[in-house]
Amino acid sequence: MKLATWNVNSLRVRLPQVLDWLKAHPVDVLCLQETKITDDRFPFMELAAAGYEAVTAGQKTYNGVAILSRHPLSDVVRNNPLYVDDQQRIIAATLSDIRVICAYVPNGQAPATEKYAYKLAWLSAFHDWVEQEKHQHPRLAILGDYNIAPENRDVHDPAAWEGHALVSPPERDAFSRLTALGLKDAYRLFEQPESGYSWWDYRQAAFRRDMGLRIDHILLSEALSKQCTGCTIDREPRSWAQPSDHAPVIAELKP
DNA sequence: ATGGCGGGTTGGACCCGA
């Protein structure tokens, strides 16, 4: 069983890459963020032809999430029932006995902005809901763009990033509060390459210079983390023409 | 220091991402 997450930054633009990637990496589940497409325009047919059913929480222009799966999905929940939010950032579904949450955490812009306050409030409510979900579904996986680099080793230049959104202590605390619920950062269950980043800015030739951050994560409940045999970031699509600025992250579970 | 790239929008300067 392979679970993956990818912020595609517009599914309309990236659909060919998603299909190519799925052909080479036929994962069981792929969580997408920043689809930037309404549900009535979602490419259900193209994905079905590739063997994937999809559930979506779409939105025009911004945000938008989806779960693609080779297996039937049930019990779909859109948005956080504990938090009123007109931005489509969460979708959850069950496949066989695994509960999957796909999340696109707000960016936060910069400390002391309204967007930063929204991010922290959003994360606090997300924590409370995840706590409930975990009680209901002990086999829980949360995949997505967390917009948080949990530690300095997840940042190419921690000094340059100090004081910025994505690395600030309150955001990292919010991430720790999630893991304190008994969720493991799948990537850190294993030995990893030194620069294990999942996002590189489009500007400054950041990818070529490997100026990245690791902000896309797969959190696994205890039961699932014990079955996890690997977690990798596939940076190859970031090197393609017209790429997303994020790379896919993949976790493998064995029975 | 600023903006740099890329996607989107009801049409082309501006918002947003991270």
Automatic annotation (TrEMBL):
This protein's cofactor list reads:
Mg(2+); Mn(2+)
Kindly state a single biological-process term from the GO annotations of this entry: DNA repair
Record site feature (Interaction with DNA substrate), residues: 246
Binding residues for Mg(2+): 7, 34, 145, 147, 245-246
What's the family? Belongs to the DNA repair enzymes AP/ExoA family.
Q: Which GO terms describe its molecular function?
A: double-stranded DNA 3'-5' DNA exonuclease activity; metal ion binding
Annotated site residues (Transition state stabilizer) in this chain: 147
Keyword Kinase assigned to the entry: answer is no
The record's gene field reads xth
Give the positions the UniProt entry annotates as the active site.
Answer: 104, 145, 246
Task: State the superkingdom.
Answer: Bacteria
Classification via Pfam families: Exo_endo_phos
Instruction: Note down the stretches annotated as region Disordered.
Output: 236-255
For the site Important for catalytic activity, which positions are given? 216
Locate the transmembrane regions by residue number.
none
Keywords, sorted A to Z: Hydrolase, Magnesium, Manganese, Metal-binding
* Name the UniProt record assigns to this protein: Exodeoxyribonuclease III
PANTHER family assigned: EXODEOXYRIBONUCLEASE III (PTHR43250)
Task: Give the organism, scientific name.
Answer: Oxalobacter vibrioformis
Q: Which residue intervals define the domain Endonuclease/exonuclease/phosphatase in the entry?
A: 4-246
Enzyme class, first EC level, given as a word = hydrolase
Q: Which Gene3D superfamilies match?
A: Endonuclease/exonuclease/phosphatase
Q: In the Enzyme Commission scheme, what number(s) does this protein have?
A: 3.1.11.2
Return the cofactor note field: Probably binds two magnesium or manganese ions per subunit.
